[in-house]
Amino acid sequence: KLVERRPGEVVLTEVGREVVRRGDDVLAMSRDLVDFARHRGGVLTGRLTLGVIPSLAPYLLPRILPVLQRQFPELRLELRETQTRQLLDDVKSGALDAAMLALPLGETGIDTLKLFDDTFLLAVPADDPRPADQRISASQIDQSRLILLEDGHCLRDQALAFCATARGGPAAAGTAFAASSLSTVIQMVASGYGVTLIPQIAADVERRDTRVKFLRLENPQPGRSIGLAFRKTSPRKADFAALGDVVKDSVAA
After folding, report:
1. How confident is the model at residue 171 (pLDDT cuts 50, 70, 90)?
2. 116-139 burial code (b ≥16 CB/10 A, e <16)
3. Cα–chain center distance at 82
4. What's the CA gap between 73 and 94, in Å, rounded?
5. The pLDDT value given to residue 186
6. CA angle, 150 then 153 then 155, to 5°
7. Residue 71 has pLDDT above 80, yes or no
8. Looking at domain 3-116+225-252, which of 3.40.50.10260, 3.40.50.80, 1.10.3720.10, 3.40.190.10 is its CATH number?
9. Domain 118-223, what architecture?
10. Is the pTM of this model over 0.85?
11. pLDDT value for 56
12. SS3 call for 228
């Protein structure tokens, strides 16, 4: 039986869930076959669906989109910004061709291409007495004042993991504040509600707010690796390599 009937609802049985999973795999493979036929003529042409995590999209996309439009005018890029778990599910199902997110992943059926390393800085209110050119140790971070992104954001998990390592045990709970975007977190920091760990690529943009300053941490500096994730069966690896080159050049510029 594929479904189980209950009062007021119908649910999939274990066999039904497996049938759905295999059906999703077949659909993803069929999309890959269509892509293979469509894109044999050139690199980065036609439709490409790309997902990006929220802590990266508003900072990286303005750098790469003008380059892609100029160098690959026949590319029709469709973008989606959402959290890591949803992006990976969409890549696996074929709803997305690829996604830019933090590595490592450890997902079956997924290949990755590393793009760049993104160092974390500590964002503090501008009146913090510590000079911006002085590196601070992890022990100097008041974790009770740490403002984090909401649950489900990989950057939240990375910040907590760094704090746990620094403490030699579980990370402190941080403040009662949580936000869905880094821009909102920075506004909280600017208003004196706390501090936050922020990736370098975001700090390059958010430092326009003079109410905030950014402190570097002592080596080994915490950070994240950003990469491109795509299905192992995808025929568009040349496209992903070309996209990766654009990202690497844009970040290095």
Report:
1. low
2. bebebbbbbeeebeeeeeeeeebe
3. 8
4. 24
5. 95
6. 105
7. yes
8. 3.40.190.10
9. 3-Layer(aba) Sandwich (3.40)
10. no
11. 96
12. strand
